[in-house]
Request: fold
Amino acid sequence: MVNQCHFLWAKRGPASRWPKERIFMSDDRYILSFKAATGFHVVLEYGGLEEMEAVQKKIEDAGLTCERWKEYNPRFDQADLYMDMRSPECIAQFDLDDWL
Reply:
């Protein structure tokens, strides 16, 4: 969706030798907030809609309610746990089943 993307122009070398190239950066944020079975407030940010929706379904199937935040939310500071699930380190450390 072009209208929801920023356009960045990147040059590769001198302008006379290399054409400009268009790079798309999405404005969309894929953030879930839920109250875990342990009572902790957990916020998870994902890199894509499909991945986030799969996790959201798993949370709701466990009988917990979750909320999607479409952008940064000042309530991040109220979360007991924030995990950026775009990071391989966070993915390796976080097990959703432990929180359901």
Helices lie at 49-61, 88-93. The chain has two helices and six strands.
